[in-house]
Write a structure and sequence with these properties.
13 strands, binds uridine-diphosphate-N-acetylglucosamine
Length: 340
């Protein structure tokens, strides 16, 4: 089955392409390389033995998007990753986020209708829950007002999809990611943040390798056992596998509703200090960090109720926190070797 992976050169996209290929699917990627490097295609080739077809253009361009679908009439499903994801940048430049994330999605949905492509997997985020009243948080928890334009694009995207599928012809699954970290075991693909990383894991590995002088831990006065904020970190390969299952669920007509939503997490919450401890253990070194004030917009704690995904998708995240931090470290070391 031919699957379109938008943003397939990026972090989660590239890992998903590898898992799709492993499951026998043919993949075509569309990416604008705004936050990724084209060399990733060669790395995918090294892992899977197959270099995926890839077209470089912006999905916010409706004419190009339609042209692409006109030339690829055999696509059975779409996994739509292509989007901007930096929370801080979205506050500084909201329209950039609304334009890119929403118009791309609408172009894809219109093209799906026009060219009869029935199945969509959408990258959503646990950010839609804000600080939930009950933990672990399940898919029925109320959506809270988004803390950032980035978060709002995820909420609005889910609504756009939900309204669009009512007219029939399209099925969709939204996957709400918790905190994806780690890298492929080959250390050939991983997270490639351009510039200073916003997220915890790449900041840790870049500090350990000497690219950054010091990690700032944002707040130790939260109402948590060690005072630092708690998240549900999930290995990117576990996450990638869930995408294959989700798209196959639709291809094999196993969806129970036209629009289904699943949490993708491990169900375990870890604090920032626990992640640092795991990292220090796996990389056998002390990490230079200091506690600073809270970061604006951060929630205190969030972790997933994974029962629905486990039962319905027959999927479970299996990799431990130590496996996540070790694979992230191996990836950072492999990158450093390449640069030398
Ligand atoms: C954020 C978004 C999430 C988005 C993801 C991808 C929110 C609430 N979450 O996740 O929706 O999909 O980014 O970009 O908007 N931390 C430090 N020092 C650092 C970096 C992070 O202490 O240098 C802490 C944070 O305060 C947080 C934890 O580490 O407690 C994880 O942060 P991060 O990796 O940025 O992810 P989220 O903010 O959870």
């Amino acid at each position: 089955m031919k699957i379109l992976v938008t943003g397939g050169v990026g972090y989660i996209g590239s890992h998903t392409v590898v898992e799709l290929q492993k499951s026998g699917h043919e993949v075509v990627i569309v990416d604008n390389l705004s936050n990724s490097k084209i060399e990733v295609l060669n790395q995918i080739h090294q892992i899977s033995g197959i270099k995926p077809e890839c077209e470089i253009f912006n999905l916010d361009d409706r004419a190009k998007t339609f042209e692409f679908f006109k030339n690829h009439t055999d696509i059975q499903g779409i996994i739509h990753f292509a989007a901007f994801k930096a929370v801080g940048e979205s506050v500084a430049n909201p329209l950039k986020y609304y334009r890119n994330n929403l118009i791309s999605l609408m172009n894809i949905l219109e093209a799906m209708k026009e060219f009869g492509v029935p199945n969509l997997v959408f990258s959503s985020s646990c950010t839609v829950y804000g600080q939930p009243d009950e933990l672990p948080v399940n898919e029925q928890a109320p959506i809270q007002k988004a803390m950032s334009p980035y978060g709002n694009t995820k909420q609005i995207s889910e609504e756009i999809i939900s309204d669009t599928i009512l007219n029939g012809g399209i099925k969709a699954i939204a996957l709400r990611y918790f905190n994806p970290i780690g890298a492929h075991e080959s250390a050939l693909i991983g997270e490639l943040p351009l510039g200073v990383p916003n997220n915890l894991m790449p900041f840790i590995t870049q500090t350990a390798i000497g690219i950054r002088a010091q990690l700032s831990v944002f707040g130790n006065d939260y109402n948590t056992p060690d005072g630092t904020a708690i998240r549900d970190y999930i290995h990117v390969v576990d996450l990638a596998k869930a995408h294959v299952i989700a798209v196959e669920r639709m291809l094999h007509k196993k969806s129970k509703k036209d629009f289904e939503i699943f949490n993708l997490g491990t169900g375990n919450g870890f604090s920032v200090l626990e992640v640092i401890n795991s990292f220090e253990k796996t990389c056998k070194a002390k990490l230079n960090y200091k506690i600073v004030g809270r970061r604006a917009g951060d929630v205190e704690q969030v972790y997933a109720d994974t029962k629905f995904a486990n039962d319905e998708l027959g999927w479970k995240a299996i990799k431990s926190l130590d496996e996540m931090t070790l694979s992230a470290w191996n990836w950072e070391k492999a990158l450093a070797k390449k640069i030398k």
